[in-house]
Amino acid sequence: MSLSGKTVIITGASRGIGEATARHLAGLGASVVLAARGGDAIRKIADEIEAEGGAALAEPCDVAQWGEVEALISKAQDRFGSVDVLVNNAGVIEPIARLDDSDPADWARVVDINLMGVYHGLRAAIPVMKAQGGGTVINISSGAATGALEGWSHYCATKAAVLSLTRCADKEFRADGIRVVGLSPGTVATEMQVQIKASGLNPVSQLELSDHIPPDWVAKGIAFLCGDGAEQFLGTDFSLKTEEGRRLAGLPQA
Q1: How far apart are CA 154 and CA 94, in angstroms?
Q2: Domains located in the chain, CATH noted
Q3: Which of 28, 168, 224, 231 ranks highest by number of CB atoms within 10 Å?
Q4: Active site includes 155?
């Protein structure tokens, strides 16, 4: 597929799924906007994409801050002329702790990033997409949205809320040509898995890094959701753990 002429904004783009997605979609012809709190990391990735002939913009952004996300969307539009796809990928899981050991400030921080960050992205991008006649928002979800795990109360709760937000946004804006869909990738070999393994709190922590799918598989799933073939999944979570999901994304079967 080709994404030539499309502008894609990716949050949490300094590493892992976000970095892999920026590189993959740029390779498909998209102009990519990399957003993350780590400005040096995203500038390096953007420079490498441009050195390979792609179009990339690095914008430091804390998704927990509404003003920074609003500015991100505006800068992307100013630079490339449109906002065609927003990938709400930024997310955290630390600190992992049982509820009675959790810190209220830490819990609130996870809510601010994992949930409010997605809301901020939707709130800033939707008016732009409505004005230009449509667009796509892909919210990175998780099996934790529907399955409880020990020590992950903050993560499970925020991912469940993001799934509900995906459903609500689809109902409100599908008629405006705005496609909102979630992507549940399964476990992915990123830095987050190192944190999970160190916790030792639930079955996911017992998995080895080799048990998880690579980030570039998720990038291919995101590319699929950018195309027309994703229509049947709007307002839901598209899962890479299913045979159908992997087939549609062009991935090896489990």
Answers
A1: 9
A2: 7-248 (3.40.50.720)
A3: 224
A4: yes
Distance CA 219, CA 222 (A): 5
Whole-number Å distance between alpha carbons of 18 and 16: 6
Task: Please give the model's pTM, rounded to 2 decimal places.
Answer: 0.93
Among 162, 171, 187, 176, smallest CA distance to 237 is for 162
CA dihedral 116, 120, 15, 250 (to 10 degrees): 100
Tokens of 229: 């073939």
Mean pLDDT by 10 residues, the chain (254 residues): 96 96 98 96 98 98 98 98 98 90 96 98 99 98 84 92 98 98 84 72 71 88 96 96 92 79
CA dist 83 and 129 (Å) reads 7
